Amino acid sequence: MPAVIRPARRRVAAAVAVPLLIGALGACGYGSERDSAPKGGKNTTAQGKALSADTVRIGYFPNITHATPLVGDHEGIIQKELGGTKLRATTFNAGPSEIEALNAGSIDIGWIGPSPAINGYTKSKGKSLRIISGSTSGGVRLVVDPKKISSLDDVKGKRIATPQKGNTQDVAFLNWIAQQGWKVDAQSGKGDVSVVRTDNKVTPDAFKSGSIDGAWVPEPTASKLVSEGGKVLLDESTLWPDKKFVITNVIVSQKFLDQHPDVVEAVLRGSVKTNAWIKDNPDKARDAANAALQQLSGKALPADIIDPAWKSIEVTDDPLASTLRTEADNAVKAGLLETPDLSGIYDLTPLNKVLRAAGRQPFDAAQLGKQ
């Protein structure tokens, strides 16, 4: 997960005593709440007539795999679609705290990975949230110390980090291990491979010290490890059909969707237009994302990290719903999740309305909701 962003105005501590797919949630603060865009960004004020809500509160991570909100917020693209409705943004450190904020009504719409979205939906018995769009595919790699590991077979017996027990990358790595015929206890991480659950912000130091031999991690952590002498042994995209899998999608509070569908549509128009701008202007978009990261975390990524990290992701409006089902099935196989009822987790009605208005084809929910 990205480095902790200390709150500028308030800090919310979260403690949840239920078993979570992405691991137990302790006290989790999240970043500064602010009017969008970040300082130095464009179109920072709401202009024109407000929609049905005066304000919409969004959440996302200061992370390359959250390129859509980073760029869309920084460049004012989302705010422009909202007109007089004010956009407020909060940055998060991890999925559990973002889900908690959504459930508490602290945010209305969030960009988040598939595992916490699945967990939030199943724990609320389908009442708390809906996935309403895709955002990003790819951006996950297995990076190793080439002095210790020269082939995939060499991973056996080594210490490999993942960000968190049961998180999206942890599940993917456990599934890959099982496909090799190796055994690992999903709860402890012990077995033919030692799976070391390590926060992404400390993984590079652990790699440099030699306490881990590699890591299955998202960007930009993967590229940080490469900059420290690591070697990309496997890109997770090569394991998926068409090399596409959901790493970030867009969720909304069911209550907010019911009460303010026009605001949800406006945010999705901004998301769709942001992704189109990113694809048409990849270098400018990369620089905008890095500028937003600098303003949010106090530090921009150097070129040898931001460039390969940016190239490894693909922004997409497609929710890639079938891959979310596969990721849930993999978590069940690993013993980290009871078989979930995901029927209804998607509501692509507002997204497909936006797409049809733009003359584009709608996306499919893979029989997991409205479309």
Helix content: 25-40%
Tell me the fraction of residues in β-strands, as a range. Answer: 15-25%
Rg (CA only): 19 Å
What is the SS-derived class?
alpha/beta
Please state the oligomeric state of the protein chains shown: single chain
Helix-strand pattern: EEHHEHEHEEEHEHEHEEHHHHEHEHE
Q: N- to C-terminal separation? A: 31 Å
**What strand order characterises the main sheet?**
1-3-2-4-11-5-12
- Large-scale geometry: globular
Largest sheet: number of strands, sense, barrel closure: 7 strands, mixed
Structure notes:
The protein contains 13 helices and 14 strands. With 371 residues, the protein is α/β, with parallel strands linked by helices. The chain has a seven-stranded mixed beta sheet, sandwiched between helices. A five-stranded mixed beta sheet has the order 8-7-9-6-10, with helices on both faces.
Keywords:
371 residues; alpha/beta; 7-stranded mixed β-sheet; 5-stranded mixed β-sheet; 36% helix
Brief characterization of the structure:
This protein has 371 residues and is of the alpha/beta class. The protein has helices spanning 67-74, 77-82, 95-104, 114-123, 168-179, 203-209, 221-227, 254-259, 261-280, 282-297, 303-311, 321-334, 349-357, and strands at 34-35, 55-60, 86-91, 109-112, 129-138, 140-144, 159-162, 194-197, 214-218, 231-235, 246-253, 313-315, 346-347, 369-370. The protein has a seven-stranded mixed sheet with strand order 1-3-2-4-11-5-12, with helices on both faces.
